[in-house]
Amino acid sequence: MDYENILVERPAEGVGLVRLNRPRAFNALTGPLMDELMSALESMDTDDAIGCMVVTGNEKAFAAGADISEMAQATPVDMIDMAFIARWERLRSIHKPVIAAVSGYALGGGCELALACDMIVASETAQFGQPEINLGVIPGAGGTQRLTRTIGKALAMEMALNDRRLTADEAARFGLVNHVAPVAEYLDVAVKLAAEIAARAPLAVRLAKDAVNMALETTLSAGLAYERNHFYALFATEDQKEGMAAFLEKRKPAWQGK
Q1: Is residue 113 over pLDDT 90?
Q2: Confidence check: pLDDT of 81 > 90
Q3: With pLDDT > 70 as the criterion, what percentage of the chain qualifies?
Q4: Catalytic residue status for 124
Q5: Per residue in 216-233, pLDDT tens?
Q6: Which residue from 73, 126, 157, 194 has the fewest beta carbons nearer than 10 Å?
Q7: What count of other Cβ atoms lies within 10 Å of the Cβ of residue 194?
Q8: Is 196 among the catalytic positions?
Q9: 8 A C-beta contact, residue 106 and residue 128
Q10: Of the listed 28, 112, 122, 143, which one is catalytic?
Q11: SS3 letters for the chain?
Q12: Which is the catalytic residue, given 12, 66, 122, 199?
């Protein structure tokens, strides 16, 4: 498929890579870009040759927010009709893991896009922030909710109310990112992580992701029951039999995704 705002690659076995490609606008997120991004991820999600995806921008910017020109004069009805934020929600329906590889600016909608991914690998220059308060609005695509669940109320409050920015090292310290790497290496680190995950048992990866996400949505008792049901369900798969046989036989398992 031909895209105008993104580039799609397969940099390693089992890995799909999507690059946001509006460098002159610091990868500002427009409706068409988000539609292309979600379409690409949804296509990879149904591709048996791909087990994990990476979303990235360029060294200067992951995404420096939404394109304000699209919404500067909008009314509430306009915003509802544009369904702009609904595009972020499509990411929640992706079954396979998605890793954000972030360098430079990840601000506003860009920060929310990274937060909506399952893991984040950051370069040393990465900068995370929710500066919507400077525009007279608030984060609308999950910033207040996902940040609070990840880094806690006090810091999320400062980011939302006073445009506090987090460096890569701060983001790692507060649990927002998984790894920090030099600019020349951060994408390779993200692709390596994705390739390692893609080499795991596909159904187990899918259900593990689902169970971890459920922990943010429900009570501990309900979450434990949800996890237990996923655990039991995997005993109906060929991969469970293969994985345990391979362990006992001291060999590498051959996953089938069945």
Answers
A1: yes
A2: no
A3: 100
A4: no
A5: 999 999 999 999 999 999
A6: 73
A7: 28
A8: no
A9: yes
A10: 112
A11: CCCCCEEEEEEECCEEEEEECCHHHCCCECHHHHHHHHHHHHHHHCCCCCCEEEEECCCCEEECCECHHHCCCCCHHHHHHHCCCHHHHHHHHCCCCEEEEECCEEECHHHHHHHHCCEEEEECCCEEECHHHHHCCCCCCCHHHHHHHHHCHHHHHHHHHHCCCEEHHHHHHCCCCCEEECCCCHHHHHHHHHHHHHCCCHHHHHHHHHHHHHCCCCCHHHHHHHHHHHHHHHHHCHHHHHHHHHHHCCCCCCCCCC
A12: 66
Verify whether residue 170 is a known catalytic residue: no
What residue ranges do the domains of the chain occupy? 6-198, 202-248
**CATH fold for domain 6-198:** 2-enoyl-CoA Hydratase; Chain A, domain 1 (3.90.226)
Closest-CA residue to 240 (of 202, 209, 210, 214) = 202
pTM above 0.90, yes or no: yes
Closest CA to 176 of 114, 110, 97, 218: 114
pLDDT at position 88: 81
Q: Give 87's pLDDT tier (boundaries 50, 70, 90).
A: confident
What would the CATH number be for the domain defined by 202-248? Answer: 1.10.12.10
109, 129, 143, 243: the active-site residue: 109
Set 14, 28, 132, 181: catalytic member: 132
109 is catalytic: yes
